[in-house]
Write a structure and sequence with these properties.
Layout lengths: L1 H24 L17 H11 L3 H4 L2 H27 L12 E2 L3 E2 H27 L3 H25 L7 H6 L1
Antiparallel strand pairs: 1-2
Organism: Dysosmobacter welbionis
Keywords: Membrane, Transmembrane, Transmembrane helix
Protein name: Putative ABC transporter permease
Length: about 180
């Protein structure tokens, strides 16, 4: 269980870095957070990675098979997380409605294709590099990290429910509050 938690947290952090890099590279006018945590983590990436890693070997054995099934798994997770954010919190962290070939603004073909290639090209390499280190994390560190993650989740959810806007999680808005 500890390995799955650290895998989730690691990919959530890497996803946060990817989001920040994408926002900087595209000169996004609104560089809003794409996740519900105060910590620099995007859980949708962690959940997506876990879904892909849970695929049977028969579906993930080759580059193209992993691209297809991994991309579909990541896209399904992205859709489900968007629905949960929308229905449970009344918040939309991303909206692809202006992107061609989108499904209710929750997912879109261009990003699904990007996830497919990213999963097939990056996940096996990254996972091979980090798995030994994550497996070696002592249980006390896992419990401490779980406590921090849980506290962040509770506080973030309360802030989002109260404000109804993901901007409440930005550092500038937290300082003003």
């Amino acid at each position: 269980m500890s390995l799955w938690l650290w895998t989730f947290w690691t990919y959530s952090f890497l996803g946060y870095l990817l989001e920040r890099g994408y926002a900087i590279a595209t000169h996004a006018d609104r560089q809003a957070r794409k996740c519900f945590l105060l910590l620099p983590m995007c859980p949708v990436y962690g959940l997506g990675a876990l879904a892909v890693l849970a695929l049977p070997e028969s579906l993930s054995g080759s580059f193209w098979s992993l691209a297809l099934w991994g991309g579909l798994a990541a896209t399904a997770v992205e859709y489900a997380v968007h629905v949960l954010y929308d229905r449970l919190l009344g918040v939309r962290f991303w909206d692809y409605s202006q992107v061609r070939w989108n499904l209710r603004g929750r997912v879109c073909l261009p990003f699904s294709l990007a996830w497919s290639l990213l999963v097939a090209a990056g996940l096996p390499v990254i996972q091979a590099a980090i798995a030994p280190a994550l497996a070696a994390v002592p249980p006390t560190a896992t419990y401490a990290a779980l406590l921090v993650f849980t506290a962040d989740t509770v506080v973030s959810l309360q802030l989002l429910r109260r404000a109804g806007d993901p901007a409440v999680l930005s550092l500038g808005n937290l300082r003003a509050a």
